[in-house]
Design goal:
Blueprint: H1 18-25, H2 29-32, H3 36-49, E1 56-60, H4 66-73, E2 77-82, H5 85-94, E3 100-104, E4 117-123, H6 132-140, E5 143-156, E6 159-160, H7 163-170, E7 176-181, H8 186-189, E8 196-203
Parallel strand pairs: 1-2, 1-4, 2-3, 4-5
Antiparallel strand pairs: 5-6, 5-8, 7-8
């Protein structure tokens, strides 16, 4: 099962110590994106989800910063947040010299003050947070007018949140809700999967 490190903090869902997991986190194909084909597939997806112009992207539950790096390579300015200091250290190293800042903090309550963003991006985070509807409203409030949420989620056995549930929670936000099914795109995961994986993009433009 693929999970982001912010799914409950350093000792999160299932008692996972994410500071300990950080050392090997990138070994999963869809975590480290070390395989050129997997990396290219995620880069292509991000190009479709993120604005064409250079934008401010808030990557919540950023883990080791793999998606942050892709966004930065596409010209975006990135702020990453994760509860695990070890993950944040790895993300800072991975994006050293780029227009990126990484903060230790809770994805549900990002420590960004009054700063606002063009995109809130999260992968495998929302499912593990209490009261996801409230969290989505909080994230929507972090966006500038015309901003967008990019939510990559799934259902893995007893864990996860269904696409229909996320889309339903997003509808009251007032944006345009788009659902993309990702389960059959094995290149994104580095293997064939038979569970539910998807992206919900909520656009305010």
């Amino acid at each position: 099962m693929t999970r982001n490190s912010d799914g409950g903090g350093v000792d999160g869902v299932g008692g996972v110590d994410w500071d300990t997991e950080a050392e090997t986190f990138d070994e999963e194909p869809d975590h480290g994106l070390r395989d050129p084909e997997v990396r290219g597939a995620w880069a292509e997806r991000l190009r479709g989800w993120l604005p064409e112009r250079a934008s401010d992207v808030l990557d919540l539950g950023c883990g080791t910063g793999s998606l942050s790096l892709l966004a930065a390579e596409q010209g975006h300015r990135v702020t990453g947040v994760d509860r695990s200091p070890a993950m944040v250290d790895l993300a800072r190293a991975k994006l050293a010299g780029r227009d990126a800042v990484f903060l230790v903090g809770d994805a549900a309550h990002p420590p960004v003050g009054e700063q606002r963003f063009d995109v809130v991006l999260c992968r495998h985070v929302l499912w593990a947070l209490p009261d996801p509807g409230r969290v989505l409203r909080q994230w929507w409030g972090l966006l500038r007018p015309g901003g967008r949420l990019v939510l990559v989620e799934g259902v893995w056995g007893a864990f996860g949140i269904a696409a229909g549930t996320v889309a339903g929670l997003a509808e009251p936000l007032g944006g345009r809700v788009l659902v993309e099914r990702l389960s059959e795109e094995s290149v994104l995961w580095g293997k064939d999967v038979d569970d539910e994986r998807y992206a919900v993009v909520v656009r305010g433009d």
